[in-house]
Amino acid sequence: MSGPSDFQPSNPALKWIERRLPIFGLIHSSFVAYPTPRNLNYWWTFGAILSMMLALQILTGVILAMHYTPHADLAFKSVELIVRDVNYGWLLRNMHACGASMFFFAVYIHMFRGLYYGSYKEPREVLWILGVIIYLLMMATGFMGYVLPWGQMSFWGATVITNLFSAVPYFGESIVTLLWGGYSVGNPTLNRFFSLHYLLPFVIAGVVVLHVWALHVAGQNNPAGVEAKTEKDTVPFTPYATIKDAFGVSCFLIFFAWFIFYMPNYLGDADNYIPANPGVTPAHIVPEWYYLPFYAILRSIPNKLAGVVAMFSAIIILCFLPWLDSARTRSSKYRPLAKQFFWIFVVVCILLGYLGSQPPEGIYVIAGRILTVCYFAYFLIVLPLLARIETPRPLPNSIADDVLAKSKGRAATAASVMLAMVVAGSLLVGGTQTAKAEEGGNAPPAQAWSFSGPFGKYDRGSLQRGLKVYKEVCSACHGLSYVAFRNLADAGGPGYSEAQAAAFASEYKIKDGPNDQGEMFERPGRPADYFPSPFPNEQAARAANGGAAPPDLSLITKARSYKRGFPQFVIDFFSQYQEQGPDYVDAILQGFEEKVPAGVTIPEGSYYNKYFPGHAIKMPKPLSDGQVTFDDGSPATVKQYAHDVTTFLMWAAEPHMEERKRIGMQVFVFLIIFAFLMYFTKRKVWADAH
Amino acid sequence: MTTASSADHPTRRDFLFVATGAAAAVGAAATVWPLVAQMNPDAATIAAGAPIQVDLAPIVEGQDIKVFWRGKPIYISHRTKKQIQEAQSVALSSLPDPQPDSARVKAGHDQWLVVIGICTHLGCIPIAHEGNYDGFFCPCHGSQYDSSGRIRQGPAPANLAVPPYAFLSDTKIQIG
């Protein structure tokens, strides 16, 4: 830790290298012999968890970049192709997208832990500030990564966030133009964001090295907040901390896997499954959950510049924390008042996050202002004041004494862990609440889907009937452009043979060319072809449909959602409910009514739909009883049609869902066994330390 | 008694350590699998590599065309009588990669040579109708192939590969 290491490898080859580059000694002194306080609790394992997350994000990100196309016209499609066609592409994308959320989740716990135990205090100020820099870099990286899929939220998130800089007096517009590389967010913006999104994680890794270096110079803080004095206060990093961290990581992976395999879109926004459209802003622009508290602060200030300044100040103020809180006692365990204010501050942050997800109107604005004041008051008034007036409780003489006294304080620790878990849980789920205000639609009734739940599978018969409904009815106006005929024979799909898929394809006329004469021609479809769209371009689709282009249906069940509301969305997390999209699509198909209720006016050329937001839909009632005849004797009713075609469209949106759930179950069984093994191994290892 | 229990204790501990280590190794291997497998061709690429059909009718004697299959240039040569004769009469023992012409064309379709136009040396595209053997000449490193696509001179170790193909009719082939 300090001074040259006395470590000497015994292997002559390693010895030879060590004399010339003492790298093994460095590793040995930093990660093996390094003395770590023996009273660290599990909140300290988040450092290791974050290191793993960074490595995982870089790894999956580098892989995704092998398949991704950073071009405004191709980016959205390339992401879909990753998910549909690349081997395990769905897994890699889920790992990366959910991984970003997990990374922030872990970093927030890491930061609150530092706050609670005073890990920013002398001599760890630089360590803390480096952490704040990492956090800022993470925010920039996360934001630019979110832009890359080039969906509606990507595009409008990029527009809103880059426009923050237009608040800068005098230079604002020039800065924004510089960021965009154009007159608006467009292809140059996407290209540079991709480049920077690839670069910044390596910058983060570099700052992490400095962070760990600073940590190893000052030594780790610990729950007691007293410095290690004798050898009795510490244990060697390996095996003690290593094994404990590994156990923490394995538990965290279980939590992570829940999202990857069972709730991959829970933290995302349905709007981002709609390709970027510079002409239409989504009804409610909401950033990803991890930015919501700062977004709430931004919106609380009714002045553009002041709002932006307040938002950035809310982060920058963390850099000054070591001097704002001048109390000598580090750990809040021994600061009765600071401890209470800490928990109030945690609640303030969570509530700000909730408000950030709500529409900026009425009570939400007032609450946002009050909480913004509370946020800053914690740093600028409460902490400086407490340092002067609070009488801390007596500190233990040493870490060893703290360990001996630990059994007494166990109940309180358990309570604080419980509270923290509840708080963390609601922090997590609070973010998922998208700020979709009531848009005048009724909540669609929840349907029973064969594909819901951890063991859900598509009903083959339903998929085949749904394909028939799509082909005979929907395909007249709606494309299905991400689905290829070959997919009909894929495992986990409608269950056709390859010959059947080829025969199905050959019924279609596909435009191909140019031929040797330079002319386009039509030929029968092949399995590799995609479902042809009914209109050659969006303008034609618009012109033929009274001004409203019928959306492509490939992703419709993922691109549509509705507000679940509190506490339903919390329950959804545990029940794995993620069928808002299918419920909505099914409801729309059945929601047409001849009689318009009193008080609702439907403009000319629109139709009344009970479940459509605003009730006036441009699509006429598409399905009626008896329209499609099923070979298998299923009832020829709108209800049946709607159910089958929705099932088919869910498959079209996520063809690998069965594989995802199947592998998910295997991963879960493995991770749970592994976590148990790690736990007992950790206990065995630590048995020596006491 | 004491000896037995102290000997027993490390054994159980060792078993636990080995089991945990083995589980970690299994987990790591299972994680690496998809990370590597993603580099293989994706489903769209594989689907696009389906067999193609080529109409031979427009190709006159002495002419050759280049078509692409799985991203590879395929030379389809309509050989002249002279070329066929040359290909058939050469002594096999004089060839670096001995192969009779009959093994490189389809029986009854001697006039059609279908080869993958990629030099077996380092992957450049040989030029048709060039070189000393009435066949192909690779400009990169000077390999020369004859009118049957066999290596005759230069650094290439093997003949131009014949792709899998079949005659659907006298004037139509399917490659792949």
Q: Compute the gyration radius of chain B: what is it?
A: 28 Å
Query: What is the number of beta strands of chain A?
Result: 6
| Mean pLDDT over the full residue set of chain A | 92
Query: Quick one: which chains have the greatest interface?
Result: A-B, 28 and 23 residues
Note the total helix count of chain A: 25
What's the count of strands of chain B? Answer: 10
Distance between the termini of chain A: 24 Å
Give the domain tally of chain A. Answer: 3
Uncertain ranges of chain B: 1-7
Helix amount of chain A: 55-70%
Tertiary shape of chain B? elongated
What is the CATH-assigned architecture of the largest domain in chain A? Answer: Up-down Bundle
Radius of gyration of chain A: 29 Å
Q: Please indicate the count of domains of chain B.
A: 2
- Summed up, the helix count of chain B is 3
Shape descriptor of chain A reads globular
At CATH level 3, the topology of the largest domain in chain A is: Cytochrome Bc1 Complex, Chain C
Main β-sheet description of chain B:
4 strands, antiparallel
Oligomer: heterodimer
Describe this structure as you would to a colleague:
- Chain B: It is a single-pass membrane protein.
- The complex is a heterodimer of chains A (690) and B (176).
- Helix content of chain A is 56%, strand content 3%.
- Chain A contains 25 helices and six strands.
- Chain A has a two-stranded antiparallel ribbon.
- The longest helix of chain A has 32 residues.
- With 176 residues, chain B is an alpha+beta fold.
- Chain B has a four-stranded antiparallel beta sheet, with no helix packed on it.
- The N terminus of chain B is likely disordered.
- At the A-B interface, helix 3, helix 5 and helix 25 of A face helix 1 and helix 2 of B.
Main features:
heterodimer, A: 690 residues, Cytochrome Bc1 Complex, Chain D, domain 2, two-stranded antiparallel ribbon, 25 helices, B: alpha+beta, Rieske Iron-sulfur Protein
